[in-house]
Write a structure and sequence with these properties.
Number of helices: 4
Structural class: alpha/beta
Order of helices and strands: EEHHEHEEEEHEE
Number of domains: 1
Strand order of the largest sheet: 5-6-4-3-7-8-9
Length: 171
């Protein structure tokens, strides 16, 4: 399936020079959306994860249905201050700012095989933060998977976990 026909590209959003990839048209089309999850499942199954982890909030769009399709659990990596109790956190740089992600301290057991899922890979900062937090918790990140990859930003070069994407754009 040509997934690019279901991605709206908005130039200069959220600021000049950024080319925003909007997956709303994909999500509105149940056949295309299901096909995207099926394509991601085919890749993720090869990594044999115990759980899928996705960052707030757009990582949930692909991570939750993927986890359900694979009959695996899903762990939300939340923005700072959104989780009760003890958390593990990491701060990272975005294309246009900085953010912090947290997971519950009890959520990942030593040796848990994790696949990270998000809608888009740009610079790799979000995944590096998640890899750091999960590795410190004792998990093994066995794969990183995105629906879209911005290849010119070379985000995949900034972490060592196996990586795959479904749709690629130069920027």
């Amino acid at each position: 399936m040509d997934f690019k026909q279901y991605i709206r590209v908005q130039e200069d959003f959220p600021r000049k020079g950024i080319s925003f990839k909007d997956v709303s048209p994909l999500l509105e089309n149940p056949v295309a959306y299901q096909a995207s999850i099926d394509a991601m499942k085919e890749i993720a199954e090869k990594w044999n994860p115990d759980i899928i982890v996705g960052p707030e909030s757009r990582g949930y769009l692909f991570g939750v249905p993927l986890a359900l399709a694979m009959k695996k659990g899903f762990l939300m990596a939340r923005k700072a201050g959104k989780l009760p109790g003890k958390t593990l956190s990491a701060t990272y740089d975005l294309e246009y700012g900085q953010a912090t992600l947290e997971i519950p301290a009890f959520a990942v057991k030593k040796g848990t095989r994790v696949v990270l899922v998000d809608d888009l890979l740009a610079t790799g900062g979000t995944f590096n933060a998640l890899i750091k937090v999960l590795t410190e918790a004792g998990a093994e990140v066995v794969g990183v998977l995105t629906f879209i990859e911005l290849t010119d930003l070379k985000g995949r070069d900034h972490f060592t976990a196996p990586f795959a994407s479904i749709v690629r754009y130069p920027h």
